[in-house]
Write a structure and sequence with these properties.
By secondary structure, the protein is α+β, with helices and mostly antiparallel strands. It has a domain of 63 residues. 58% of the residues lie in helices and 19% in strands. The protein has four helices and three strands. It has a three-stranded antiparallel β-sheet. Helix 2 runs antiparallel to helix 4. The chain is elongated and about 60 Å long.
Amino acid sequence: MSAKEKLSEELLVQKNVVKQHEIILFNDDVNTFDHVIDTLIEVCDHTPEQAEQCSIIVHYKGKCTVKTGEFNDLKPRCSKLLQAGLSAEIV
């Protein structure tokens, strides 16, 4: 393998590695199921079924990953969740 081929291969590998982050939604005693479901549909582009399942998981398990992706996509979504009164963070 020539030096040029090796460099090209290394660049391709680096290009394809994208760090995935997650928005974690936490349980609270304040928000209703309907509010959580409606917010997940609006902010995270969930289907009604996905949003309902996430709200149930959050209620019984205490937390749930509601969205994965690149940080730049998740940051405004997480901000909207927080503005809606939900407890969430990006990890």
